[in-house]
Amino acid sequence: MVRFLRHVFALCALGLATVATAQSTFEQDYDALSRQLARVNADAGENPFARLERLQAAQALEAAGLARKRDREDALALAAIQISIADYGVRNAYLSQQSQQLDRERDAILLEASRRDAELARQEAERLRLQVLAREEEEALAAAAEPPLDAAEMPDPATQNLSETQRKDAALARLEEELSEQMARKGDILAKRTGAGPTGYIVSGAAFQPGKAVLNADARLELQQLAKRLKTGGKSWEIVGFTDNLGDEDGNLQISRKRAEVVLSLFRAAGIPSARLTAVGKGSTQPLASNASKAGRAQNRRVEILQK
C-alpha cells in the first residue's frame, strides 16, 4: 500500500512539473512576441506605417494571452504571423517613403542642371553676339580705310559665297533659336517616329545644349532608358542627325554628325553592341517642315533613331 501511494505521489509531481514547464515556455514565447511587436511599433514611430497590420498583430497577441491552454500554441503561431506581416508592412512603407524622397531629389537635380545648361547657353550666345559685333566693327573700319573699288572690280553678289561674317550671323541666329526653344520647351524631347519610312524615334534638337553636340541632363536620362529597351531587342539602328538651313552646309553636316555620334556613344555605353549601331550626319537635307519659320526650323533640328 505504501509503495502504491508513493507511485501515485510521483506521478502527480511529474504532472505538476510538466504543467509548470509548459506554462514557462508559453510565457517565454509570449514575452518574445511582445518585444518583437514593440520593436515594430518603435520602427514605425509617429508614421502611419502599416497601422492596420500593427493593430491586427496586437489583437492577435492579446487573444493568445487569453486563450485556453489547449489553444495557446495555435494562438501564439497566429500572433507570430501577424507580427511578421506588420513588420514587413512597416519596412515596405519606409522603403517607399525613401524612394519617393530620392525621386524628388533627382527631379530637383535635373531641374537645376537644366537651368544651369540654359544659363551657360545664354552666356555662350551673348559671347558669340559680341564677337560678331566686334568683327563687324573691325571690317567696317578696314573698309573705311581702303579706297573704294570701281564698279568693274566689285564682286557679283549673286555668285559670291557667304562671307565669314554672314556665316557667324547664321550660327548666332541658330544658337539664339535653340536657346529660346530649350527655355520654352514643352512636352517630350523624345518621341516615337510616325508616318512613312522605317520605324524608330525622334530626338528633338532641344535635347542638346544650343550650338553644341552635348546632351542635356534630362535628355541623357531619357535616352538611357530608351537604350535599355533597345538593348534587349537585338535589332540594329541607324542614328541620323539633321539641322535647319541656317549657316553653311559644311557646318550643318559637322554638327549633325557630332550629335548623332553622341547618341551612338550613349547607346554603346548602355550595352548595345557597336556592330548594331551606325551614325551619320545629313545636315539640312530631308527637312520635316519649312525652314521659313522658327517653328519649322526647330522641327528640322533633330536626331532620328531608325531601325535598319
Secondary structure layout:
Elements: H1 2-44, H2 51-66, H3 72-145, H4 164-183, E1 190-192, E2 200-204, H5 217-231, E3 237-242, H6 249-269, E4 277-281, H7 294-300, E5 302-307
Parallel strand pairs: 3-4
Antiparallel strand pairs: 1-2, 2-5, 3-5
Helix pairs in contact: 1-2, 1-3, 2-3, 3-4
Structure description:
The protein is an alpha+beta fold and 308 residues long. It has two domains: 2-96; 187-307, 60s Ribosomal Protein L30, Chain: A. Helix content is 64%, strand content 8%. It is built from seven helices and five strands. The protein has a five-stranded mixed sheet with strand order 1-2-5-3-4. The longest helix has 74 residues, at 72-145.
Question: What attributes does this structure have?
Answer:
308 residues; single chain; 2 domains; five-stranded mixed sheet; alpha+beta
* Span of the ends, CA to CA: 104 Å
Domain unit count: 2
| Sheet with most strands | 5 strands, mixed
Detail the poorly predicted runs.
Answer: 12-17
Q: Would you list the SSEs in sequence order as H and E?
A: HHHHEEHEHEHE
Percent helix: 55-70%
Structural class: alpha+beta
CATH topology of the largest domain: 60s Ribosomal Protein L30, Chain: A
Oligomer: single chain
As laid out across the biggest beta sheet, the strand order is 1-2-5-3-4
Gyration radius over CA? 38 Å
Report the principal-axis shape: elongated
CATH superfamily of the largest domain: OmpA-like domain
CATH architecture of the largest domain: 2-Layer Sandwich
